[in-house]
Amino acid sequence: MKHVKDHFEEEAEVFDGLIRTLIPYYDDMVNSLVLALPFNEKEVIRVLDLGCGTGNISKKLKERFPQAYITCVDLAENMVQIAKSKLVDYSDIEFKLADFRDLNFQEEYDAVISSLALHHLQPEEQKSFYCKINDFLKKGGVFYNADNLMGSSHHLNHVYMDRWVDFILKTHTQEEVETVWLPKHREEDSPSPLRKHIQWMDEAGFCEVDVVWKYYYFGVYGGRK
Question: What is the pTM of this model?
Fold first, then answer.
């Protein structure tokens, strides 16, 4: 994960502007994840944000659930510093500079959320990590993830990639796509098919697993412990 950490340390200051040029309908994706959380806005809930980045999802979550206590985790120090600045008005958010694979919580959280982070794990790590996420959750707690998702066939994968590249080309040059973004994607990302994620969540003990938002290569899915 070192090259992933280095990448995000370098991009932290421009991340919020950049992400919207690289991820189609980024704000819709974030909103879909937050809307999927089955809580009342007045409830006191504990939430774990894995790979919090600059704090975009935690900020949106606090706007919808003002009584939420959030633990934000990221391995890039620059990302954490920006998240702290963005969330400075909240006293009920803690920050951990860590690789989320090293966390060890036991049934502490009502919800675990993640965005554009799990695809940095290898598929076998992704599969086993669902068991760890399940351990983080209280009984009845939920996990929702927004991430890169491969298709179930070569044809669909080509369609997904073509649509993704078309979107990036709206704001980036062909040269930049071919020399920067696609090489970074190939080096750092190991996305898995959506059907695999659903299977792995079922095997890890989740129920009510569902897809709440999807646009070709990107989606939001999750379930309940």
Answer: 0.91
